[in-house]
Amino acid sequence: MDSGLALRPAPSGSAGSVEAAIVRVTSWTSRILVAAACGGAAACQQTPLPTAREGRVLYGDNGCASCHGEKGYGDGTVAATLEPKPRDFRDVNAFKNGFEVQAIATTIAEGLLQHAAPATGATGAPVHHQQGMPKFPHLSDVERQSLALYVMSLRSQSTTR
């Protein structure tokens, strides 16, 4: 296998040849280090990075707007029927677990459920249930981080409302 690393004698008067050889070696070494860090070149290519663009798609696909609204104001079509009310993403203080990507991603993974007051079921027996934001365990870590980035972008977009 030819690695392309063979150093050839530079023609006289070509001072850039040594620099070119160093660049080839450095580039080759960098590829090896990146592949090793990922567990192989294929693993690096298979792990997508989270993006707000992907988060926007996921926001629509997972029904987030039905509670939080299209622009994240907490005014979705079912918001008025919910207690507690959905978060308005413009208010950083409304984020119970923090406003960092990982904190928001964790909230998406685990939900924010609280015990509701006992109600009486059809049989007259008390029914205990939880209310709040449901869990989204079917999403991958990268998808939850993408959603978090999109939620964070909604706050910055609200300044141009």
Keywords:
single chain, about 160 residues, mainly alpha, Cytochrome Bc1 Complex, Chain D, domain 2, two-stranded antiparallel sheet, 6 helices, about 45% helix, disordered N terminus
Give the gist of this structure.
The chain has 161 residues and is mainly alpha-helical. The chain has 2 domains: 1-47, no CATH class; 52-160, Cytochrome Bc1 Complex, Chain D, domain 2, CATH 1.10.760.10. The protein is built from 6 helices and 4 strands, in the order αααααββββα.
Helix content: 40-55%
Percent of residues in beta strands: 5-15%
Give the oligomeric state of the chains in this entry, treating copies of one chain as homo and distinct chains as hetero. Answer: single chain
Low-pLDDT runs of 5+ residues are 1-8, 17-30
Helix/sheet category: mainly alpha
Q: How many angstroms separate the termini?
A: 59 Å
Count of individual domains: 2
CATH architecture term of the largest domain? Orthogonal Bundle
General form? globular
Q: What is the assigned CATH homologous superfamily of the largest domain?
A: Cytochrome c-like domain
- What is the CATH topology descriptor of the largest domain? Cytochrome Bc1 Complex, Chain D, domain 2
- CATH class of the largest domain, please? Mainly Alpha
Q: Summarize the biggest pleated sheet.
A: 2 strands, antiparallel
Backbone CA Rg: 26 Å
What strand order characterises the main sheet? 1-4
Q: What's the rounded overall pLDDT mean?
A: 77
Total of helices: 6
What's the SSE pattern?
HHHHHEEEEH
